[in-house]
Amino acid sequence: MGDYIDKVLNTVREKNFDEPEFLQAVDEVLTTIRPAVESHPEYKKLAILERITEPERIITFRVTWVDDSGKVQVNRGFRVQFNGLIGPYKGGLRFDKSVNQSIMKFLGFEQIFKNALTGLPIGGAKGGSDFDPKGKSDMEIMRFCQSFMTELQRHIGPDVDVPAGDIGVGAREIGYLYGQYRRIRDRYDGGVITGKGIEYGGSLARTEATGYGLIYFMREMLKVNGNQTFEGKTVTISGSGNVAIYACEKAQMLGAKVVAMSDSNGCIYDKNGIDLMCIKQIKEVKRGRIKDYLNTYPDAEYIEKDSEDSPIWNIKTDIALPCATQNEVTLNSARKLVENGVIAIGEGANMPCVKEATEYFLEKGVLVAPAKAANAGGVATSAIEMSQNSMRYYLSFEHVDRMLDAIMVNIFKSTKDACDSYGLGTNYVAGSNIAAFTKLAKAMSAQGIM
Known about the structure:
The protein has about 450 residues and is α/β, with parallel strands linked by helices. It folds into 2 domains: about 1-190, Rossmann fold (3-Layer(aba) Sandwich), CATH 3.40.50.10860; about 205-375, 3-Layer(aba) Sandwich (Rossmann fold), CATH 3.40.50. It is built from 18 helices and 12 strands. It has helices spanning about 1-15, 20-30, 35-40, 40-45, 50, 100-115, 140-150, 170-185, 205-225, 240-255, 275-285, 295, 330-340, 355-365, 370-375, 375-390, 395-420, 430-445; strands at about 55-65, 70-85, 90-95, 125-130, 160-165, 235-240, 255-265, 265-270, 300-305, 320, 345, 365-370. The strands form 2 sheets. The protein has a 7-stranded mixed β-sheet with strand order 9-8-7-6-10-11-12, sandwiched between helices. It has a 5-stranded mixed β-sheet with strand order 1-2-4-3-5. Helix 10 links the parallel strand 6 and strand 7. The longest helix is centred in the C-terminal third of the chain and has 25 residues, at about 395-420. The radius of gyration is 21 Å and the shape is globular.
């Protein structure tokens, strides 16, 4: 059966030779699920791997809008509806100049497995545009979002495909997107998009969910490996968006000392512990750069990024939480983290570690909480938001947070159970992939050849 996996990998590489991010995601999954595939020869007969690595649908469209100077701008929009086996397509929208088909397919492929792990009835998708919201006025962003949704609305619906936010798509963008959807459809379909404002159908705890969920998963992982906790641990967190901010908040609640955070320009190091309220003011209110932290805490250190390796990974830490973007932890960074005594990595972003870095961590006995499992809290709470919209009912913050905690505990349990079943030790990367793949393969087998 190893030949089957290798054959599929070669075919995927040939068909998608110019999509490195997608190939990386497929390679990481297929090479780790060998034990499960080898114990089920029927998967080859049913072409399970060939089918699961091919998107059900890729939608690409032009987005035209007018900037504040009156100039017409043209961007490209995407929606990759990768797999709807277990529910409506579900996955975020990313607005960033780096967006292309490879990144959309990689994110959509990851989303299939992440959503399966939640135990909730949601399929996998991803979308976005190469539009960069940085430096744009509110009116420019509104005009772009309205144009983007004018096309996207043809392909989504509460029981069809439910987008959410991602990099570059926060509360402001979700509001403009949903407003245009409602304007065109002329009805209230609250469950068509998640991450909405509380005032018009959003869920309490959705903003905090991905960051909190990461820490809940890490808590469980630490507990079963030496009965460790966050109490007294030093933590570094890349990024300073929603995931990073609320991972920091929950880690601090559990007694950790977060000493560093970053943005695309560099990182801030505060040996006394990061003042999260200051970070929130800079990033959520002023939309400034993390370097502005020095205006309040001049004794902190700012380290400029001058290579592909983020300087944050040179800082000595017990726990590292990459929460910024894909492939931000290189093999060089992994070596530096291990040299400095890191004991655990928690992937808050999607595929933040290059494959070689992940393999190095596992080789050196570092615990790795993989993104598919560890950052599933956001989409899990999005599904809870969809349920609330269907019921026309709001749940309290505490209720949603308890549900999120329980979901993350179950995700860790299914990941660990897969590790135990296949003798994988603490390779939670392989465990999470196998747990999700097994569920998807069963659904695919049950629904016939399609």
